[in-house]
């Protein structure tokens, strides 16, 4: 039970913010319910006064009824407006919270979930929850109240008839509840399948060029179709259960009314009930039947919303990236220090990527990481940026452990060009400006010149105002890398990390850029990760990483003399280039 409560906690935390408005809606619901039942009482008395031909009473009651209507209409209007406000505001808050979680959560949360599944949670799950808030919740607030007030009046009017007509109600509620139970399970399954389908669709869009080159169209089409068919078949099962609810609704609707007409008619003939009383009873039956009638739908809507809420809650329960308060100092000896660091993505040291890893990078030093693919070079960068935490050991950046750093301050002082470059579908100017939003126009031009992309940009008809398309397909791989380098150097940080940042350039262009960069980044700490040895001959120190540890280190010439791993990797590349 406790576990079940905790599942909805986060969602409730968001709903709770607008609870005051909901409270006002609840109070107005009670008022409207009371006025509606009171109006029925007036109608009964007006009918009886008409039958008795009591003109004075008839007129007086009519004025009273109009007076009630004058209260009822504005109360209903304000209630509807406030409820709409509550529903819209709650949904907006939910959207904001979910977006916040997506942006501020640790990177591993994003990495382990498919993009399409996230989109599905933000759209279809949220619209199911929205459906519950915008209709079912309103009905839940009004109908039980009017039911209770109406019931009190009905008992007061004729308790025997109330008892008879209510006999059928518990049975019908039970049937509706049992039939709609599987809807929750089926909806959760269907939503999971939709998430999966969206993820495949996202893969198709992102990987369309791979799909075309490797002729995978049919394979992906089939995969997408199969996934759609699975969610269709789950949807069908859920629809079948929902269809079963229809006859239940009809029985609920007709049964009590027929009983009232039968027993009430007999009582009027025996003068145990006035005609106005019978009319009032038939009207009251509408009040009693309405919630019964919509109950299966409300239960259904609740079950669907409960299933969707579980999926939303998985996002909402995600913790924000933990950050310390340390803002750093300008005085430090080492830019980066790894002390006996063990790290595994799976929190299992048997599968550690870094094993007892030790490294010290002096301030202003230019170093390069080399090693076979998958040995952990990019992982070191993620750890320096505090994106992951080591299971053992300590990582210090600018002399302060990453766990104590305020991550914004830390990342502000480090510029990174990753292997997977992402440029936003925006102008080239804006894409460079993301490096430092306060940069001036001249600084942006300067950064473009240093990364040797200025000439190309100026050759475009719209220059810096050229819009990059999604996936930056309208620029080449090399141009993309140069724009990303311009963005990084605009940052003016203490440490620059280039992770395969120039891999798409030919050797000459690469050497030119590196020369320009080493001139303009004088005195800064530079970490280069590369598979191309020609580009790192002039760094101060080369670190060779093998099986999660520092296997060798030294200058290019020292390492060649050692005839170890570096020598093997270097000669293998040289041979490849010669072939
Ligand atoms: N987010 C992740 N979740 C789980 N495992 C990961 C993740 N990122 C990397 N790995 C694994 O960690 C290991 C090291 O990866 P890393 O990207 O650091 O290697 P690398 O040396 O930079 O490789 P390359 O030279 O090919 O870029 C690899 O075995 C990789 O599969």
Automatic annotation (TrEMBL):
GO terms for molecular function: ABC-type oligopeptide transporter activity; ATP binding; ATP hydrolysis activity. Residues 24-304 form the ABC transmembrane type-1 domain. Keywords: ATP-binding, Membrane, Nucleotide-binding, Transmembrane, Transmembrane helix. It is a multi-pass membrane protein. PANTHER family: ATP-BINDING CASSETTE SUB-FAMILY B MEMBER 10, MITOCHONDRIAL, ATP-DEPENDENT PERMEASE MDL1, MITOCHONDRIAL. Residues 336-572 form the ABC transporter domain. The chain crosses the membrane at residues 20-40, 60-82, 128-155, 161-179, 275-295. GO terms for cellular component: plasma membrane. It is found in: Cell membrane. This is ABC transporter related protein. It comes from Caldicellulosiruptor owensensis (strain ATCC 700167 / DSM 13100 / OL). InterPro entries: AAA+_ATPase, ABC1_TM_dom, ABC1_TM_sf, ABC_transporter-like_ATP-bd, ABC_transporter-like_CS, P-loop_NTPase, Type_1_exporter. Its main location: membrane.
